[in-house]
Amino acid sequence: MRYFAFAFIAILLANCGDGSLSATNPSATRNIVVLSKDPVFLGESAKVFRGDQPMRVVGEQAMVCLVLRGDVSDKESDALFKQLMNEAQVEISVTLTSGEAIQLSEPLPGWSRSGTILRSGELVGCASDCCEGRLPKGSEIKEATIKSSKPLAVQGIYWKSTDAYDGLGKK
Questions:
Q1: End-to-end alpha-carbon separation of the chain, Å?
Q2: pLDDT of 150-159, one tens digit each?
Q3: Which of 110, 10, 6, 14 is nearest to 66 (CA)?
Q4: To which H or E segment does residue 101 belong?
Q5: pTM of the model
Q6: What are phi and psi of 153, to 5 degrees?
Q7: Cβ partners under 8 Å of residue 100, min gap 6
Q8: Confidence at residue 164, expressed as pLDDT on a 0 to 100 scale
Q9: All residues at 6 or more sequence positions from 46 whose CB lies less than 8 Å from its CB, including other chains
Q10: Is residue 158 within 8 Å of 105, Cβ to Cβ?
Q11: Can you tell me whether residue 62 is helix, strand or coil?
Q12: d(CA 13, CA 8)
C-alpha cells in the first residue's frame, strides 16, 4: 500500500515540460498556495502556516508538501528522501475554515522536474488524507500545522490540490 501511495504521489508530482498539470490534462483545475518560500526548521514544537491566498480542495488530490532539496534527479530521489528525513516522524494537520482539524498521512516522497518552490528537480515529502475523502471537494483550508520528532530542515512548504486525477482507478 505504501508503494502504491508513493507511486501515485510521484505520478502526481511528475509534471511535464513547463511544470503545469495542464500539459497532461488541459481541463485540470489546481490550487497551489505557497505556505513558506523560505527555509524552515521544523521540530517538536508545532508551527502553523497560512497562505496569502485561500487553500482550496479542488479535487481528490490535496496535500501539504515539504520541499527537501532541489536539483535532484528522479533516480536518486528515494535514497535522498530517506537520508534527508533522517527517520523523523512528521505530523501534519490542516484546519478547515469550519474549524475541523484533519490529520494527514505521514509525508511520502515525491519528485517534480519543475519545482513549485525551487527551480528544478524538487524533492518533496507530501502528506495527504490518503484518499479517505476527509477533505471534500469545495472545502477551504485555514491553516496547516506541522511538527517533527527530530529537527528537520525544509526549503519551503506548499499546499497543492488538483482534480487532474479524479476518478482514476475507479470502476
A1: 19
A2: 999 999 999 9
A3: 110
A4: strand 101-103
A5: 0.84
A6: -90, 125
A7: none
A8: 87
A9: 145, 146, 147
A10: no
A11: strand
A12: 9
